[in-house]
Amino acid sequence: MAGGQLKFLDWYLKIAAVSALIGASMELFMIHTGFYDKVTALESEKLAWESSAEAQALREARNPWRRLDEEKK
Question: What stretches pass through the bilayer (predicted)?
Answer without folding.
Answer: 12-31
